[in-house]
């Protein structure tokens, strides 16, 4: 009875809520009051056989759904939880302190999950339906959301939320998390200031975008920075930042604006720096060519399992894009454009660490040379807790781009290469 009543209320409220939501003159408190009033009116007209206590609970839950995120509102604000995985209405998993666990949270049914989907998508240009059943969006706080619905999701709507870590703003926060030590961060900060070209690599959820976010704060406030993303995640603090986001096709299949198109346009925007949220396709070649033509200090993210795999991934992206270019030419472009690869991994204990800081050092027999400058050496893994103990080590290889530091008048700490 209560579940059916709530569904009836949702259906009657949703169109009115959409109208009110886009009215910027309505404050949140006023909107909350309007939702409360409309909900109470609907219950009064329906006159269901429920207690006053149940009525108040229904009103409270409906307000929470429309003003917040319903059953997951609490865990969205839990700082110890980094990911929320809604696998249909009855299985909601969370990642807490690096470990995945099944929560005790449930939705009433698939319709309530779809209502959450509508709530998430309402402020965006994105949509999902049977013809276009998945999408990526960002919440206002920067958390990234992936949504996939039936018929592709067989057991009901699936929502995956990777929370934006608001408390990780300074390089000291990376130290506290164990992502890197001071020597690694000092070196990478110097690279940022010296306009070294850096790619942050790792698997999904390895923490590469978080690290990029923190390190990008060391870009001078005098520079014009253009960020290009498929789904907006980056949160830069500088004054002169231009944020670009790709656009999906509309219901008629028209209007798509790709990362590549945005990248090409960004070159005409007089950028001092270009930050590419994720390299996925032929824009890899555009980025390499842009760096070689003078747009140094570029930063980018790529999914790759190792520094060497970054090179293979770039090769594959370009070769399968349909652009007519030889493998030899790709190798020359990569060797000329890239300087540093920062590899991150999520270890067995759930911690996320920079495991390699590697340099791209020219060609050898036509192949791109990748050399490790710093490595995270695992010394021990506790057999019971899986806690990882290790340390970062310098390999003895000096950067081939030391001239960039001299040119930028950046003094490296003497103890970095020890």
Describe this structure in words.
The chain is built from 13 helices and 15 strands. It is an alpha/beta fold and 418 residues long. It folds into three domains: 1-67; 71-164, Beta-Lactamase; 171-407, P-loop containing nucleotide triphosphate hydrolases (Rossmann fold, 3-Layer(aba) Sandwich). The chain has a nine-stranded mixed sheet with strand order 9-8-10-11-7-12-13-14-15, with helices on both faces. The radius of gyration is 24 Å and the shape is elongated. 35% of the residues are buried.
Provide tags for this entry.
alpha/beta; 9-stranded mixed sheet; 418 residues; Beta-Lactamase; Rossmann fold
What's this entry about, in short?
The chain has 13 helices and 15 strands.
Class of the largest domain in CATH? Alpha Beta
CATH topology of the largest domain: Rossmann fold
Tell me the name of the CATH homologous superfamily of the largest domain: P-loop containing nucleotide triphosphate hydrolases
Tell me the Rg in angstroms. Answer: 24 Å
Helix percentage: 25-40%
């Amino acid at each position: 009875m209560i579940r059916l009543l709530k569904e009836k209320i949702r259906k009657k409220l949703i169109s009115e809520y959409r109208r009110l939501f886009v009215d910027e003159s309505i404050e949140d408190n006023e909107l909350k009051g309007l939702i409360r009033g409309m909900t109470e009116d609907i219950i009064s007209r329906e006159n269901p056989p429920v207690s006053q206590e149940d009525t108040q609970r229904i009103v409270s839950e409906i307000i929470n759904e429309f003003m917040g995120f319903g059953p997951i509102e609490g865990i969205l604000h839990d700082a110890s939880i980094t990911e929320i995985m809604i696998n249909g209405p009855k299985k909601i998993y969370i990642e807490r302190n690096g470990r995945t666990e099944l929560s005790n949270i449930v939705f009433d049914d698939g319709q309530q999950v779809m209502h959450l989907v509508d709530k998430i998508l309402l402020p965006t240009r994105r949509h999902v339906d049977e013809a276009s059943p998945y999408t990526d969006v960002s919440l206002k706080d920067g958390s990234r959301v992936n949504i996939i619905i039936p018929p592709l999701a067989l057991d009901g709507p699936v929502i995956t939320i990777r929370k934006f870590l608001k408390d990780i703003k300074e390089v000291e926060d990376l130290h506290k998390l164990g992502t890197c030590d001071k020597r690694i961060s000092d070196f990478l900060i110097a690279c940022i200031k010296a306009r070294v070209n850096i790619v942050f690599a790792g698997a999904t959820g390895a923490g590469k975008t978080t690290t990029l976010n923190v390190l990008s704060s060391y870009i001078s406030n005098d520079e014009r920075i253009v960020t290009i993303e498929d789904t907006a995640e980056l949160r830069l603090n500088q004054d002169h930042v231009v944020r670009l986001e790709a656009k999906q096709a509309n219901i008629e299949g028209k209007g798509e604006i790709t990362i590549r198109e945005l990248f090409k346009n960004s070159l005409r925007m007089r950028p001092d720096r270009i930050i590419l949220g994720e390299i996925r396709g032929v824009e890899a070649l555009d980025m390499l060519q842009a760096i070689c033509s003078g747009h140094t200090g570029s930063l980018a993210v790529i999914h790759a399992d190792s520094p060497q795999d970054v090179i293979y991934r770039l090769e594959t992206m370009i070769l399968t894009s349909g652009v007519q270019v030889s493998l030899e030419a790709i190798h020359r472009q990569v060797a000329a454009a890239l300087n540093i690869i920062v590899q991150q991994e999520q270890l067995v204990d759930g911690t996320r660490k920079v495991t390699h800081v590697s340099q791209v050092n020219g060609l050898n027999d036509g192949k791109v040379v990748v050399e490790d400058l710093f490595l995270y050496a695992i010394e021990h893994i506790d057999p019971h807790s899986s806690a990882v103990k290790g340390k970062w080590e310098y390999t003895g290889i000096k950067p081939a781009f030391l001239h960039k530091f001299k040119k930028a008048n950046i003094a490296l700490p003497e103890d970095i290469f020890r």
